[in-house]
Write a structure and sequence with these properties.
Keywords: Cytoplasm, GTP-binding, Ligase, Magnesium, Metal-binding, Nucleotide-binding, Purine biosynthesis. InterPro entries: Adenylosuccin_syn_GTP-bd, Adenylosuccin_syn_Lys_AS, Adenylosuccinate_synth_dom1, Adenylosuccinate_synth_dom2, Adenylosuccinate_synth_dom3, Adenylosuccinate_synthetase, P-loop_NTPase. Homodimer. One of its GO terms (cellular component) is cytoplasm. This protein has 3 domains: 157 residues, Adenylosuccinate Synthetase, subunit A, domain 1 (Adenylosuccinate Synthetase, Chain A, domain 1); 94 residues, Adenylosuccinate Synthetase, subunit A, domain 2, CATH 1.10.300.10; 158 residues, Adenylosuccinate Synthetase, subunit A, domain 3 (Adenylosuccinate Synthetase, Chain A, domain 3). It is 31% helix and 20% strand. It contains 12 helices and 20 strands. The strands form 5 sheets. A 10-stranded mixed β-sheet has the order 9-7-5-2-10-1-11-15-19-20, with helices on both faces. The longest helix is centred in the middle third of the chain and has 18 residues. The chain starts with a strand and ends in a 7-residue tail after the last strand. 47% of the residues are buried.
Length: 432
Amino acid sequence: MTNVVVVGSQWGDEGKGKIVDWLSERADIVVRFQGGHNAGHTLVIDGVSYKLSLLPSGVVRPGKLAVIGNGVVIDPHALIAEIDKLAAQGVKITPENLRIADNATLILSLHRELDGIREDAASNSGTKIGTTRRGIGPAYEDKVGRRAIRVMDLADLGTLPAKVDRLLTHHNALRRGLGETEVSHQAIMDELSAVAERVLPFMDTVWLLLDRQRRKGARILFEGAQGTLLDIDHGTYPFVTSSNTVAGQAAAGSGMGPGSLGYILGITKAYTTRVGEGPFPTELDDEIGQFLGERGHEFGTVTGRKRRCGWFDAALVRQSVAANGITGIALTKLDVLDGLDELKICVGYMLDGQEIDHLPASQAQQASVKPVYITLEGWKESTVGARKWADLPAQAIKYVRQVEELIGAPVALLSTSPERDDTILVTDPFED
């Protein structure tokens, strides 16, 4: 048996929620290792939808331990609201099924405000990134700047004033420069004091907890947010998120060593989507793009923003396979392609008259590349609900095999509808 890391291999929104939920039945512990409540996914269990943004998927499964690792930035108000919302749906969250790393960074109101101020200014200057305005980036900045307030600080309100002073020295200087009113020391103290009682019962030394559980033989599922092409280092910078989204972050963001990670499962949509600004070589601004968006219900779980849609980009996913060390992929939303006469797959790009096999790191070059396509015959039969290879049309199987060959990784799972049981299992990652 092995541990499993789940990462998105594109720009996020690949359908990780269903796959993580499917895997969580086989896991003992589900660990969220990066990001914040800027990412979200929907779980459908026995006809009930649960929308999660911050809490790991394991919280909706009885007998599972959900863990928020140190790599996550936590808005305590969003955390409490999500806990209360699940409680209203009959899912009780207690320290028995949720633990939060004591050294995780908190998102405060001043982070959300700064995020919005910057995005508004960027909109006016044409440099908008398309953030969710939830304070994720500014919170990570404070973490790296060594002035963050962390979960453990809520337990020692006596030492908090000096830390708040240090934080405000930075933020109020920024706000003055931006023509905004300063934040008062007392306002931040009141904000932190108000949430301490709800958050602290879940606090734990997560690296130690996970190490002990690993030694006992527990199966651990590491759950990432967003996707590889939104990674702060390996993504389409600057149109990226503020954290590392690749599989290596599962170790750093949880406190477990890389040797404990095991199987790396890349969740991969059978076409391509992205939300927000930034390059998208295979984007379709035509009736096929509209078809994919409508058939695939392509709207963001957190923001409700319409996703941009395009053909499958094998060159991008091939990069993700390398950056993550992906063992196998879970191919999702194959059914959305049902009925199309032909399908295209991007296998590389043209840049300045030269064909290249990867997306360059340069922002200008990313905006200039043109996709190189191969064309495959589509299929008219439905793949919805298929649970074995024999249920799939021959052309659908051919498409899947072509994807495997082009990205250099096998399909471990194939998803054919939003329902969790409509999944073709080729390899169980926990048993590989």
